[in-house]
Design brief:
Blueprint (H helix, E strand, L loop, with lengths): L1 H43 L4 E5 L2 H5 L2 E4 L10 E3 L24 E2 L6 E9 L5 E13 L6 E7 L2 E6 L13 E2 L7 E8 L4 E10 L14 E9 L9
Parallel strand pairs: 1-12, 8-9
Antiparallel strand pairs: 1-3, 2-5, 4-5, 5-11, 6-10, 6-12, 7-8, 7-11
Length: 235
């Protein structure tokens, strides 16, 4: 009888120890998931598209960015309002006046639109570069993304190359195969010159890669303005 009591008590102790280990493991997993959630919230709370000056040196040189033409106060960072959900549309559905008399965010149904300005507020002629980096992408949604740059009324649409032909999608210039996916130079930017940019981002429904598999995907993009770009080569 005494031996049976000892055996039973030992089994109970082992059972309780296993239960404690399981509870600790579940609690640790829960804390890790909470931490991951907080990190992702921080990453994506800044919006899906931002424009930044690359360094203080660019700002000191007189290159200024701002989104209100009546208040040309130089800023280090501009941020477009994000859209929680983008359905696919056609480029033909975009408003014809999307580049007219806007400032800052002017999103519409299923597209992001943002207008800002770059001005040479210094005393010397400058060259500057603008580049677009793809910071993150989920479910290959970039396969169908269109990125339109309207610079002083001149429109260029960028997209990934056609997966089958390896050629540009109709009416587009190709993204580069590596970051930055867009890299362009503006030369002879004279004191007092002001460039107007309107950026438009959407999912192109006529793209062959715009399929159900990308539903629920996300993309995060950043545009950087730099005075010099010595170490990067246009391809």
């Amino acid at each position: 009888m005494k031996n049976e009591v000892i055996v039973t008590a030992d089994k109970i102790r082992k059972k309780k120890r296993k239960e404690r280990i399981v509870k600790i493991a579940l609690l640790t997993l829960l804390l890790l998931l909470i931490a991951l959630y907080i990190i992702l919230r921080i990453i994506y709370s800044e919006g899906k598209f931002t424009i930044t000056l690359d360094s203080n040196e660019t700002l000191k040189s007189g290159i200024a960015i701002f989104d209100d033409p009546e208040d040309p106060t130089a800023r280090r960072k501009l941020e477009a309002s994000k859209i929680e959900f983008l359905d696919n549309i056609s480029v033909k559905w975009l408003p014809e006046n999307i580049d007219d008399e806007y400032k800052g965010s002017h999103n519409g149904p299923n597209y992001i639109a943002y207008t800002f300005y770059i001005e040479n507020q210094g005393k010397e002629i400058q060259n500057y570069w603008y580049e677009v980096e793809q910071l993150d992408v989920i479910k290959n949604v970039d396969d169908a993304v269109r990125f339109m740059v309207i610079l002083n009324g001149e429109k260029t649409i960028y997209a990934k190359k056609n997966e089958l032909s390896g050629e540009p999608e109709e009416g587009t210039e190709m993204f580069r195969d590596e970051n930055p996916i867009i890299l362009e130079q503006r030369k002879d930017f004279r004191p007092g010159d002001r460039d107007r940019f309107t950026i438009v981002i959407w999912l192109e429904g006529d793209d062959p890669e715009c399929v159900d598999a990308i539903i629920g995907g996300e993309i995060k993009l950043e545009m950087k303005i730099t005075e010099e770009h010595i170490n990067k080569i246009i391809k």
